[in-house]
Amino acid sequence: MKTPTRKPRENRERILAAIREAAIAEFSQNGLKGTSTQAIAARAGLTKPQLHYYIKGKEELYEELLLSVMSDWKGMFDAGSTDPGKVLGDYIRSKIDQAFDKPEVSRIFTREVLDGGHNLEKFWPESRQRTQEKVNIINGWIARGLMKPVDPHVLLMSIWSMTQFYADSAVQVRQLVSPGQPGWQPDREALVRELCALLLRGCGIRTP
Amino acid sequence: MKTPTRKPRENRERILAAIREAAIAEFSQNGLKGTSTQAIAARAGLTKPQLHYYIKGKEELYEELLLSVMSDWKGMFDAGSTDPGKVLGDYIRSKIDQAFDKPEVSRIFTREVLDGGHNLEKFWPESRQRTQEKVNIINGWIARGLMKPVDPHVLLMSIWSMTQFYADSAVQVRQLVSPGQPGWQPDREALVRELCALLLRGCGIRTP
Amino acid sequence: MKTPTRKPRENRERILAAIREAAIAEFSQNGLKGTSTQAIAARAGLTKPQLHYYIKGKEELYEELLLSVMSDWKGMFDAGSTDPGKVLGDYIRSKIDQAFDKPEVSRIFTREVLDGGHNLEKFWPESRQRTQEKVNIINGWIARGLMKPVDPHVLLMSIWSMTQFYADSAVQVRQLVSPGQPGWQPDREALVRELCALLLRGCGIRTP
Amino acid sequence: MKTPTRKPRENRERILAAIREAAIAEFSQNGLKGTSTQAIAARAGLTKPQLHYYIKGKEELYEELLLSVMSDWKGMFDAGSTDPGKVLGDYIRSKIDQAFDKPEVSRIFTREVLDGGHNLEKFWPESRQRTQEKVNIINGWIARGLMKPVDPHVLLMSIWSMTQFYADSAVQVRQLVSPGQPGWQPDREALVRELCALLLRGCGIRTP
DNA sequence: GATGAATGAGGGTTCATTCAT
DNA sequence: TATGAATGAACCCTCATTCAT
Q1: Disulfide engineering: B154 pairs with which of A92, A194, A207, C133, CB 3.0-4.6 Å?
Q2: For strand E, is any atom closer than 7 Å to the CB of C4?
Q3: Between chain A and chain B, how many beta carbons pairs sit less than 8 Å apart?
Q4: pTM score, whole prediction
Q5: Where in chain D are the domains?
Q6: What is the dotted CATH code of the domain comprising D3-55?
Q7: Which C residues, 87 through 126, put their C-beta within 8 Å of a C-beta on chain D?
């Protein structure tokens, strides 16, 4: 009569969700090696053996998380429109949204890359292909005179890093921009506007 | 009688340099927690107790290293000229040079920021001040009509992240750009040119 | 309503049999300590708690099994005949049959002896008595001149170990006898014949 | 000034010897899985981490021990003489000596075989070859009429198991032979004599 | 009867650091 | 200075068993 446990399925799902949340927080803060199952368990309100009842191991949990992280980025570069300004603008917005809403997720990825990206090996082929598709689209725009001849790879990596920055280096941002003072605040809307302006102008894309 | 040990001072310096070099490599690859003193000692050609004879502790060594890392970035934004294009271009080049030549140093910093930047606390005030100076300079350029009204903070962070990216995400770059194929290669000169073009145009700075 | 469960008694017996079979296989392969209840449960098609519903504990299950193993050896040395050759020959055949047909059972016993035989304590008195009876019979044969004066204990232990070997050391046998080649194969009939010839001749027992 | 530790080399060797002795005792009693490093460490008078300072791991230690066990058996079957009775008699004596003097070592091997012998894989080829040599020698004796036509493999395995028995089943022997009473005692000399008589007569080898 | 969940103990191993020499 | 040795804590994981449903 301690805990009702009426619906086992639901309970399991709830616990698993708690584990995932805890793991994201821990991995994001301390990395794969730096995170102890102890910490994940504690944060999820479980004991260590309990945790192992639900997951297979630390690495497996990490990889599963990494997979869900990767899937979050799919389809962000939506080439539905023929307007370069709209496509790139939407891309920037999506990435900034993700950086503001789920910064931990971004950090897990950055950390993994910093660690050598060995757990990402299985994702590279697909990522490579998707990158190539984007490159082709941008080259098409250039060919049609819709934008200046910018190296597509450099452009894509620039957008990636500029937006990722607001997730990974949130601390840095907060510290460098007169904290607690009426100075600049990383306001999401203003930021998106500024980044778009900077980049679209840089590409020579005319905006309405 | 094994080793002459003629000049203790010199010897000590040489060993300390070896330790620093080894530590940079290890910390850069595995982070603070992920690095074992064993690994540092081995890479520096010492035994573990030997290492502890020269350093105070892992954390202390790390902090000392972080300090030297930070000093590398001082003076990169050289406002000696009145030409915004030259100042920003030089800044970009310096950062890219550093990213290509000392990527480990960059990675240690990024990792620290990812970890929360607690060991950077003492550096924030100075960094903040230097950032403010740069912001003022840029605002001056804007006031004098030398460039479009771009948010200086966003601009600085963009340059920072875009350049840093080539150090931190070297793996990603290599993997995403059709490796081993005649595709795009991260050539330093071309890269600097592209980044300058993109950013200066984005700021509305006319280049000769 | 999932499973009919028509005859609970029968079902229980069937499950218990499955457990015993699974346990024999596991204990025989991995020993008492090396076997996990998990493994037994899995092999018997049960969950761990289910298994614990039917058994009292791992050790208890083991002891119960050991008991049934011991009973298999009763009456193998059948002194019904007055012909030493026949009695010993039948004994050898029974033991080889058991070694070939139920090697796991043999192995559980050998393992237990290797472990110190603490769980066999209750069986020793009876075994001792049965051994003494056999010794007396053999001494009788010797007294009547039916065989050479061989130490009965040594003879019995020799037969025991020589036959047991083909159960316990099946791997060794297979590996040492040119595997996969047209060399010697552990053929049961030939083996019994050879062992009988060797031993009976060794005892100076004339065979028809 | 706690412990002299004057000669590091010597000390290390002494500790390693203690570890090996402890490990033999433990592995012999509880097998690879059943033995805890804790137990080995305790028996050797060390703490667990201390133990790991000297060995690489439990499995490695086990394999090293197994290797030394195997080498103990090399050259026991000394075919220096042309007298079958002497060769086999010496073989039996060597094996019985080893069974009485180092029973634990024998048990480690038997246990390994019982476990499937996976750690012995690398030894099989050599063992196979040595077995073949012995088989050839015995076949030579038979061809020259020095002994009856006994299957050499069966003979060798019989000798092996009969002698091994006194190491592996020491408990059984002690329990089955009226313990504490003036009955039969496993006296080494008598045992060797009995076994030789039994086997040589079984092979039809005339002894002086 | 069967199932999800919990628990406490222990297993193997690695680590940062310090001692005594 | 430099080395063998020690130490105590922590880490990841598995196990046998039991509880409540």
Answers
A1: A194
A2: no
A3: 149
A4: 0.85
A5: 3-55, 66-202
A6: 1.10.10.60
A7: 107, 110-111, 113-117, 120, 124
